Amino acid sequence: MINTTPPPETHPLVPLEDVDVPAWPERAALKMAALRIRTLLTRSDQRPFIAEDRLDDSVDVFSDMATPAFCAPLLAELDETLASWATNPAPKQWIKPLVLPPCDEQDLLSHWAQRHHHEVLAPPTRDALLIETPELALDLSGDGVLVIPRLEAWFLRHRCGLGLIRKLLTTLAGLKRHCVIGCNSWAWAFLCKAVDVHLILPEPLTFEPFDEPRLRRWLADIARQQTEEGTRFRLSRNGKNIFALNRKGQPRLEYFETLAARSRGIAWVAWHLWQRSLKKASDDADNDLSENDQQTLWVVALEEFSLPGSDDTQALLILQALLIHGSLSAGELERVLPDPGFQGMHHALHRAGFIGERDGCYYCRASAYPAIRDGLATAGFPLDGY
Amino acid sequence: MAQQASSSPEAASMIRSIGDIDFVTIALIILGTWLAITLVKRTLPWVAERGPNRLRLWLLGAVPIFRLAATALAVIWIIPMVVKVTVENFLVIAGAVGVAFGFAFKDYISSLIAGIVAQFETPWRAGDWVKIGSDYGEVRSVGMRAITLRTLHDDIITVPNLKLWDNNIANSNDGERTLMCVADFYIAPPFDAQRMRAALRDVALTSAWLCYDKPIIVFVEQAKVGTHIELRCYPFEMRDQGHFISDLTVRGKEAIQALGATEVSAPAAAG
Fold it and tell me: Which residue among A40, A338, A380 sits closest to B53, beta carbon to beta carbon?
C-alpha cells in the first residue's frame, strides 16, 4: 500500500495570514472532547505534576534516519519559493521573512543556507544581548543572499534584551541585498508586540500546513526509503493497514487526518508523533504476516497528553519562554522568567519528556508541542499565529 | 357599606381552599428548584476553575442567570396552584405582600430587588474585579441578596446588593478577560525622562504576564514629591495581576537604578 501512495508534491510557501490549520475529523474530535471532559472531571488537584504524562516510552524505529531525508521535502519547498527571487538582481522585496513553526530541531533554514553556500549571519551570544547599549557593529553589506536563520537568537525577553534586535531591524529596513530571515512563530508573535517587526519587515511566508493527503504522501515516501520492502503499517487496535485506500482512492482510516490535526499541520511535529506511535512487535510470533508482509510495524493510537491548565503556572511560564526563545540554558531561563522560584520545575519537565536538553540548553520537544500549546491556550497565554 | 360587604367574600375566594392546594407538588417544585440551583451553583464554578480560561467568565456569569430563571419559573408555576389568578387578585395580593414585607424586611427586599436589577444593569458579574467602597476583589459569587468578593489578600468579603443603590462601583474589567494594572514610581529629578519612559516600556514588554493585544502606556506627571510615572499595561490573565504588578515593580526599580535615577519616598520628600 505504501508503494501505491503517490510521491509528495512540492508546495510553495504561503503568507502567514493565510495559514489554515488542518481540522479534526469529526469522530476524532468527539473522542478527544469526551476525553478532555473526562480528564477535566477526574483530574485531582493532589495529582503529582504530569506523573502519568510521560512521553519517553517510544522506540525509535527510524533512529538511523539521516537528517537530509527528513528535511528534503521542506528544503525543496524553500527552493521553489526562493530560487527565482534569489537570482533576481532587482527583486520587489529584498527581504524574505519566513515564519517557521516552533520546535524546529533540525535548524532547517541553516541547512538550506549551507546547501546553497549562502552567507549566514551568526547571532551574538546571549550575554552580549544584555549589554544595555550594544556596541556590536552590524555590517550586512555584501553580495549574494544573506541568511539570518533564527531571529529568535537576536533578543532575550529581558528589559535589556531588545536593544540588539531593534538595531538589527533598523539596519535590515534599509538593506538592499537579498536577505532571508527565519523566525519561529512564537518569537514572531512576541516581536510583533515588542518591536513592531511586522511593520518593519515585509509580510512573512510560512510552510503550507501538512493536511491529510500531503502528510500521508510524505510519510509514505519516508517509509519507502527507510524500511524494508513489503513493510506494512498496521493499527495495533484492529490490525488495519493505515495506508489502505478504498475504491474511490480515499484513505480507509482517519489516522493521517487525525495526525495532521493534532500536529497542526507542522511537518516535524507530525513526524515525531508518527515516529513515537510506531512499535515493533517484541516477538516474531506477534507479527501478522498473513498478507505477505515482510515486516509489520504496529501503529499505536495517538495518545492525548495533557498539561495542567492553570494548576502550574510555573511550568507553563517555562514552556512559553522556551517556545519564544527556541532554546535556553538554566541560567538564561532564570533571566527571562518573572519568579526566581522555578529551579526544580525544568527538571520535572525534562524528565517527563516535555522538554529536551542539548549542549546545556533546554528546548520544547516537537512530540510534546501539541500538549504544550493546548496547555498554554487553556491557561490563556498569548499564542503564536501558526 | 353594601359594596364592602360584597368585596369580602371575593377577597376570601382569591386563595384556593386548603383541600384544593397540592402541597406535595409545591414542595417538590421548591425542592427541585433548590436542588437545580445548588447543583449549578457548585458545578459551574468548579468547571470554570478547571476548564479553558476563555470559558471561565461565561460559565461563572451563567450561575446567577440560571438562578433567577429557575426561581422565576418556580414562582410562576406555584402561584396558580395557590391563587386564583385574575388581574384583581394579583393587584390585591401584590399590595398586601408589598406592605407586609416592606415593613418587616425592608433592607432584605431592597437587596433582593437590587440583585435582580444587577442582573440587567450588570455593574458586576462573577469573575469581574470590582471596587465597592474600600473593598477591591474578584467577584466569586453573585447571590440574590449579596455578592462575595475575594480580595488580593485572599479575604472573602460579603457585600449586600443594597450597595448598588448608593455606592460608586468601579469595575476594572467589565466582563473582559483582562484589566489594566498600574505600577507607580516616584523619581527624584533630574533624570532623562525619555530614556526612562523607554526603559520602563521595555520592562512591561518583557514581562512574561503581558497580554499582547492591549496597549502599554507610560504616563508621566509632575507631583510634589517628584516625578510620578505610571506604567499602565494589561496581564493576559487578570487573576495574575498581583504577580504582574510585582514583576513590573521589581524590574522597574532595576531599570531606574540602571539609569542612575533615584526613587523618592514621601517621608524623605517631606523632610
Answer: A380
